[in-house]
Specification:
Blueprint: H1 2-30, H2 41-48, E1 54-59, E2 65-72, E3 75-81, H3 98-101, E4 106-115, E5 118-121
Antiparallel strand pairs: 1-2, 2-3, 3-4, 4-5
Length: about 120
């Protein structure tokens, strides 16, 4: 009796975990990303209502900040900024403060979903 119950519990747990990942994707797809252009980065990330687990500043060319990539489970959100009121555009060390970046205005948002060795762009 204990073995079937344990298997059912594991299957239920895995199913709920997968549902949560899909809910994140549905939540991101329901958001009108155009309405966040010109608003603070933090406003958009609050709307997603999910914690990112990693971020990388986007530099182009190196040491010139143009945006940040936020990683969510199987999704990447690229946020490009239009203002530099709180962060410096150029940094000789390539280091910026994420809290200051959150206060900047959004120029453009791109969302990519990674799925079975291919990317789906939105």
């Amino acid at each position: 009796m204990k073995v079937p119950f344990f298997i059912i519990f594991i299957l239920f747990f895995l199913g709920c975990s997968n549902m949560n990942r899909n809910n994140i994707y549905l939540k991101i797809n329901d958001i009108d990303i155009k309405k966040y252009e010109g608003k603070e980065v933090s406003e958009f990330l609050k709307e997603i209502n999910e914690e990112y687990f990693k971020y990388y500043f986007i530099q182009e060319p190196p040491l010139r900040l143009i945006g940040c990539m936020f990683m969510f489970n199987n999704y990447s959100v690229f946020i490009y900024i239009s203002t530099y009121n709180y962060v410096e555009r150029f940094n000789n060390e390539g280091k910026w403060d994420i809290d200051d970046f959150m206060k900047e205005k959004i120029l453009k948002i791109e969302i990519e979903r990674l799925r079975r060795n291919r990317q789906i762009k939105r």
